[in-house]
Here is the input.
Amino acid sequence: MRILIDECLPKRCAKLILGHHVSTVPLAGWAGKKNGELLRLMEANGYDVFITADQNTQYQQNLKNRRIAVIVPALPMLHMDHITPLVPKLHKALEVIQPGAFVVIREE
Here is the structure.
């Protein structure tokens, strides 16, 4: 699975996702692009999942009929100490996610 991590998340997040091809928005050369354009670029370049902390994405973007899915870790702060505990749930979401899905993962 090809995964793109938004530039709003620490780039170290990419190292937490094992068994997939993971890149970041800056590494892909798309820094500064708005989410709608990012989603189009992702589809055109064969990405499957976008991981972003922007919880408004589900209201701003229509994922119906899209070939990609979006995962949003619900975080109190964009810090690795808050992200790391969500990694097991992120991996579980990646196992079952389907194109067009929008999934929020949070600590219980």
User: Anything to note?
Assistant: The beta strands are 2-5, 21-24, 49-51, 69-73, 102-105. The helical segments are 25-28, 35-44, 57-60, 80-83, 87-96. The mean pLDDT is 91. The two ends are 27 Å apart (CA to CA).
